[in-house]
Amino acid sequence: MTPQRNLVPNLLRLTPLAIFVVITVALTFASPRFLDVTNLLNIRVQSSYIAIIAIGMTFVLLIAGMDLSVGASMYVSAAIVGLYFSGLPVWLALPLSMLIGALFGSVNAVLVVVLRIPAFVATLATLFIGRGLALFISQTKMVFASDAILAFAQTAVLGVPLVIWTLAVLMAIALVVERMTPFGRYLFAIGSDQTGAIKAGLPVWRTIFTVYVVCGALAALGGFVSFSQTAVASSTFGLEKEFAVVAAVVLGGTSLFGGRGTVLGALFGAVLVQTVQNGLVLVNANPYIYPIVVSGIIFIAVLLDSVRTTIVARLSERRIRVEPKTTRRAIAQTGTLL
């Protein structure tokens, strides 16, 4: 596409940034505490678990998939670690939590890859199954984090919270995988044209299986981070977090239709979503408004993605130039173009 035809899609990609600027300015006037250094750091820390899960969700959306069970994976892993492995040090509890999430993600992978159930339906089912399993394990009681898990959220290295370091390392690894490995190229190829990728001999089903396992593992890691921050996993732990994660990923520029996006954008989207929630708290907004605001963010994200995808598809269509009638008549009579 020419630069002129690229203008509208590029402007649409900048819309989330414009929304972020407007929200920041509005919250600055609404609450003097918003631009406080401590509050800004809190936003980064509080958005870290959403950003971690958003990395896995980005991979899923890149292949035109969907995982609605990340909130359930958060709850299951936190409940099991908090109840049965609370005495373990963090360096053992954290990978164990990710292993539990990977097993949860492998169930999604089997449903999608082996049984060929649509991802939306499969992960919607495991959302309820996983949450029911966690409620059964915890007996609907609150699960409290051990001192070792709490220390994970309270520890800082070189003045930077450990959870931020964890996110930074994961983001660096994800960027390398996305941009510098065959696996990353497979993601874009599958999301753009799965049938074409199969015909080209790419390991489509193995890649899809891996993506859901990775998403489950990162959802559990995000749950571990959130568990260490809140100190307790109640029956609502992780509830509806899948919607905030999807909103963050789509606001970051990843398409719901697959084949386009980046994990770096997911980080921006996570900060944007958390900024809105933080602002609602600072202005003492009615708690019943929170779901409405989050729903509005999701609607805007999906609308922008849909409009952008439609415009790009139209601009990418091959244009057929119709010859004048006299030229067509001459071609028909002589068989040559005059």
Can you tell me about this structure?
With 338 residues, the protein is mostly helical. The protein has a single domain (47-272, 290-334), classed as ABC transporter involved in vitamin B12 uptake, BtuC. Helices cover 75% and strands 2% of the residues. It is built from 15 helices and four strands. The strands form two sheets. Strands 1-4 form a two-stranded antiparallel sheet. Helix 8 crosses helix 9 (182-192) and helix 12 runs parallel beside helix 14. The protein is globular and about 55 Å long. It starts with a helix and ends with a helix.
SSE inventory with pairings:
Elements: H1 3-30, H2 37-46, H3 48-62, H4 70-84, H5 90-114, H6 119-138, E1 143-144, H7 147-154, E2 156-157, E3 160-161, H8 162-180, H9 182-192, H10 194-199, H11 204-230, E4 232-233, H12 241-251, H13 263-282, H14 290-316, H15 325-334
Give short descriptive properties of this protein.
mainly alpha; two-stranded antiparallel ribbon; globular; single chain; 15 helices; 338 residues; ABC transporter involved in vitamin B12 uptake, BtuC
Structural domains: how many: 1
Counted by DSSP, the helix tally is 15
Annotated CATH architecture: Orthogonal Bundle
CATH topology: ABC transporter involved in vitamin B12 uptake, BtuC
Q: Which consecutive residue ranges, at least 5 long each, have pLDDT under 50?
A: none
Quaternary structure type: single chain
Order of helices and strands: HHHHHHEHEEHHHHEHHHH
Report the C-alpha radius of gyration, rounded.
23 Å
Percent strand equals: under 5%
Secondary-structure-derived class: mainly alpha
Principal-axis shape: globular
Identify the CATH class: Mainly Alpha
